[in-house]
């Protein structure tokens, strides 16, 4: 029986598995540097991470701590006991023939991630977070006309954590927003750079389709090779549609692994899905099981920084910021830290500081091509500039000039004086500029006298311009009102 797709109501079920490189100095089981990308190929390697027979691994304590920190940030339970297991498979960039991972006793279990998707707060379960090691990389090159594949083992043994989510997501957009929130948390707690382009944050998605009444259920399909949030969303939209069409046509959906081909915008079948038993997991004989002391977990918990959602809520509550501004300020921990240093004890100045930061400081940052965590002026200087504006000692245009001209360590008022930017409150200077403006704008004067009081805005703008942008707005207004009432 064939039904048109429109006659059936479908449900989409999505679960995500994220592999994130753990930010550490050294690799998971040896003392080689974990900085693999910048070094020449095969220079950050030793017997352990090259997989030479007989070489013995040693566990990186810092990596374990970062994974526990991740688990705690995701509300997981940290079982008192866990172990490492060998996952056997063959890849040309996996010389050992197995990967050290965790099978039945992971480091972290039963957590959740709360995130916002299209304005609605959602919570998805986190099944587990476990530690494992990355593989090497194959480099495909053209050497003297022949295409060759070379192996670089610098990345082999870099600590990796796998964050397995419950199949609680119901749309491609939710999947994207879940990933954005997860990456933000990993960056906040310093557990991973979360850099997707460099492969430090990789996602596999499981998606299945069923009818709303449960009468038709497709098998789970795993999608790989998505290296941006946009790619994850596009691949899932494509796959959702493909599965719905198949089911509507009365066809079945086999369990398989498909790869996303970004350039063509399609998923293609790669292989039928293997089961856990195909990997022949067994306990890693060269490493002891781990006992995780409750006091250690407590100390990691106590050192957790405030997470993005809580920080956003506090910014709204404590500083009276709008939700979208608070969101922008807390996207990255470095930005939120900068903002809080800038505000300091002057909470009543927070909204103005937020405006200047989001518009002008960020604008200057982009203009100068600075990274997101490098600010063109010091946080204290931003506070000083806003203070000068609030006191009427600096006009908006004067503040912009000061922002662009101030050097590290300088005092804002001193620089404003030196650059001749301080607002002019001298009533003789302003009166002369105002008279000039009134003479040049008879129409606006007539409008004002005819009752259109808003016309004073244009007159103020022209008068301030006539003072070289430095006339104090309050004095300009007072003098214009006085002259217009004569
Ligand atoms: Zn090594």
In brief:
With 486 residues, this protein is α+β, with helices and mostly antiparallel strands. Helices cover 37% and strands 21% of the residues. The strands form four sheets. An eight-stranded mixed beta sheet has the order 5-6-9-1-10-11-12-13. It has a three-stranded antiparallel beta sheet with strand order 4-3-14, with no helix packed on it. A two-stranded antiparallel ribbon has the order 2-15.
Protein model, in words:
By secondary structure, the chain is an alpha+beta fold. The protein folds into 3 domains: 5-295, no CATH class; 307-418, no CATH class; 427-484. The protein contains 15 helices and 15 strands. It has helices spanning 61-73, 172-188, 229-248, 294-302, 308-319, 323-330, 333-343, 350-367, 379-390, 396-405, 412-418, 427-440, 442-449, 456-466, 473-484, and strands at 10-21, 81-82, 85-88, 98-101, 108-117, 120-133, 137-143, 146-152, 159-165, 201-211, 221-226, 256-261, 266-272, 282-283, 290-291. The longest helix has 20 residues, at 229-248. The model has no long low-confidence stretch (mean pLDDT 93). Residues 27, 30, 32, 45-46, 48-49, 157 line the site of zinc ion.
């Amino acid at each position: 029986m064939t039904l048109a797709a429109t006659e059936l109501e479908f449900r989409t079920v999505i679960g995500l598995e994220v592999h994130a490189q753990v930010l550490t100095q050294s690799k998971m089981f040896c003392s080689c540097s974990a900085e693999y990308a910048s070094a020449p190929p095969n220079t950050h390697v030793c017997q352990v991470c090259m997989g030479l027979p007989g070489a013995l691994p040693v566990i990186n304590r810092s990596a374990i701590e970062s994974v526990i920190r991740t688990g705690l940030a995701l509300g997981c339970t940290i079982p008192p006991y866990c172990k490492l297991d060998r996952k056997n498979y063959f890849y040309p960039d996996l010389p050992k023939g197995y990967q050290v991972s965790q099978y039945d006793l992971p480091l972290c279990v039963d957590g959740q991630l709360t995130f916002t998707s299209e304005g609605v707060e959602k919570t998805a379960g986190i099944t587990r977070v476990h530690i494992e090691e990355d593989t090497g990389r194959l480099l495909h090159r053209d050497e003297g006309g022949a295409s060759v594949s070379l192996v670089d083992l610098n990345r082999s043994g870099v600590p990796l954590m796998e964050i397995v989510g419950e199949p609680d997501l119901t749309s491609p957009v939710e999947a994207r927003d879940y990933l954005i929130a997860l990456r933000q948390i990993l960056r906040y707690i310093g557990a991973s750079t979360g850099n997707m382009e460099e492969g430090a944050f990789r996602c596999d998605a499981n998606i299945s389709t069923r009818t709303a009444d449960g009468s038709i259920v497709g098998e789970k399909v795993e999608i790989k090779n998505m290296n941006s949030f946009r790619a994850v969303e596009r691949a899932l939209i494509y796959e959702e549609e493909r599965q719905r069409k198949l089911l509507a046509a009365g066809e079945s959906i086999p369990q398989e692994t498909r790869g996303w081909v970004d350039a063509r915008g399609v998923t293609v079948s790669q292989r039928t899905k293997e089961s856990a038993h195909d990997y022949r997991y067994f306990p890693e004989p060269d490493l002891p099981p781990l006992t995780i002391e409750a006091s250690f977990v407590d100390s990691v918990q106590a050192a957790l920084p405030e997470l993005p959602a809580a920080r956003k809520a506090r910014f709204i509550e404590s500083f009276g910021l709008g939700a979208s501004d608070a969101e922008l300020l807390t996207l990255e921990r470095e930005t939120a830290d900068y903002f809080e240093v800038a505000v300091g004890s002057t909470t009543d100045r927070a909204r103005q500081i937020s405006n200047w930061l989001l518009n002008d400081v960020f604008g200057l940052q982009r203009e100068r091509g600075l990274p997101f965590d490098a600010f063109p002026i010091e946080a204290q200087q931003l506070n000083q500039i806003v203070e000068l504006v609030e006191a009427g000692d600096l006009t908006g245009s004067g503040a912009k000039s000061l922002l662009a001209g101030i050097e590290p360590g300088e005092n804002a008022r001193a620089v404003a004086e030196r650059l001749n930017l301080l607002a002019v409150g001298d009533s003789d200077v302003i009166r002369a500029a105002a008279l000039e403006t009134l003479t040049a704008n008879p129409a606006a004067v007539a409008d004002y006298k005819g009752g259109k009081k808003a016309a004073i805005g244009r007159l103020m703008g022209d008068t301030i311009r006539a003072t070289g942008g430095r006339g104090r707005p309050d004095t300009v207004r007072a003098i214009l009102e006085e002259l217009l009432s004569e």
